Amino acid sequence: MLKDRLYYQDAYIKKFTTQIIKESQDSDGNWYVVLENTAFYPTGGGQPHDTGTINGIDVLNVEEVDGEIRHTLDEKLNITGDVEGIIDWSRRFDHMQQHTGQHILTAAFVELFGFQTESFHLGKELCTIDLAAENVNAEHLEAAEKLANDIILENLPIETKWVTEDELEQYSLRKELAVTDEIRLVIIPDFDYNGCGGTHPSSTGQISGIKILFTEKQKRKVRVHFVCGGRILQQLHRKNAILSEATRQLSAPEDRVNDAVEKLLATNRLLEKTFKESQESLLKYEAKDLLTKKDNKIVKQVFTGRTMQEIQSLARMIVGLDDNVIALLVLENENRLQYVAAKGSNVSMSMKQISDTARSVINGKGGGKDDFVQGGGERTMTAEELLDKMVECVL
Fold first, then answer.
1. Among 37, 265, 317, 354, which has the highest number of CB atoms less than 10 A from its own CB?
2. What is the domain extent for residue 346?
3. Other beta carbons within 10 Å of 247
4. Number of independent structural domains in the chain
């Protein structure tokens, strides 16, 4: 029975002795053992599996498959008789804090605003709950976080109880249960009654605290990212290190970092504007220079190490300066050829003809309008040869 498993009998068991009843390999060739009884919690209910060792061999994964709990090992155990299992307690207790913190935070959102939790994820660094609410504002978050931490501060007992389906009506459950046999309730008296198969501490005080970090929209839901217990200090240390580095680089005290960042962003925007204006001036100068080299009203040029955006802008500038020319530009980058063809307003020929020719010889793709086309493809020839093909099309 489920309730006979060691991790349900006592969530604080860190070391236990049992016997192996099966040792085998899974479909991927990994060795695993099935024990007579176990304190290793298998993945389930949003809570990740425990890790640790069995007779000194690392336990990499624990999962329930076909009614048996498989402990995936780093190597073959190859032993008979009694074995000793040791739980990675820091990982287990962290999971207990996060999972129980989720129960409390979820109950707080329900009690205060009627926001139900639709899913829960216990990640390596952060935890999330998805609330069935389209809009959750800062006031909602602050109030729910405060209520959750008040419950933790009261150090209320956390009870676990096995009940039958008929006994469920005695409890005001937060949500309906999907199971009908071997029902396990996790209860914080007068606050939260919930069916759950996870491991939990014996009192709310052991969670230490809950901190909501940020939220994000998920279609018609809101995902709340949070941490509990020891993870709050981890987040504080990490954020403090980032803030300290920012104050050093910005040469500003902590309370003036935002002002320094705003000033830096304003300077950056001005530099970007100046750079863009300078780049446009250089392109205009380059366009005028290329126009002096036109042949039969065709401006042609091969480029390397440039961006397609620059080549497009250059072609538009050329035909903007002279209504009677056609600009044929080819860009060569690594194993790819790209092209641009543009015409002045007094030219009758459609640039789509040039694009058709270029695409066909480089197995490429392209498109555009009668006055401007662009495309690219394989390097089936040199850039100069592609440019010659485009010129031939015009002539």
1. 354
2. 280-394
3. 16
4. 3
